[in-house]
């Protein structure tokens, strides 16, 4: 039973269609181009979409928009705190 559960966990966390969504950290703003932030209304509303290896796929304004973007690209969004 444990092996079956472990195999399921490995498949779940290594799935290629999962995208992790988290709010962007304050220290990450310095890494973004200034012109990219000019159109942002609320910096606290920026969310990062990342793959399982931690590669940043996108930055989206709004949590709902981040989840919608993931689903639009046929990915399964998972919230990360």
Write up this protein.
- The protein has about 80 residues and is an alpha+beta fold.
- Helix content is about 30%, strand content about 25%.
- The chain has a 4-stranded mixed beta sheet with strand order 3-2-1-4, with helices on one face.
- It is elongated.
- The N and C termini lie far apart (about 30 Å).
- About 10% of the residues are buried.
- The model has no long low-confidence stretch (mean pLDDT about 85).
Summarize the structure.
With 81 residues, the chain is an alpha+beta fold. The protein has helices at 2-13, 34-37, 63-72, and strands spanning 18-23, 46-50, 56-61, 76-79.
Radius of gyration: 15 Å
Number of E strands:
4
Low-confidence stretches: none
Discrete helix count: 3
Instruction: Please state the structural category.
Output: alpha+beta
- Specify the helix fraction band: 25-40%
Q: List the secondary-structure elements in sequence, H or E.
A: HEHEEHE
- In angstroms, what separates the terminal alpha carbons? 30 Å
- Strand content is 25-35%
Mean pLDDT: 83
What is the strand arrangement across the widest sheet? 3-2-1-4
**Sheet bearing the most strands, described?**
4 strands, mixed
- Described by the principal axes of the CA atoms, the overall outline is elongated
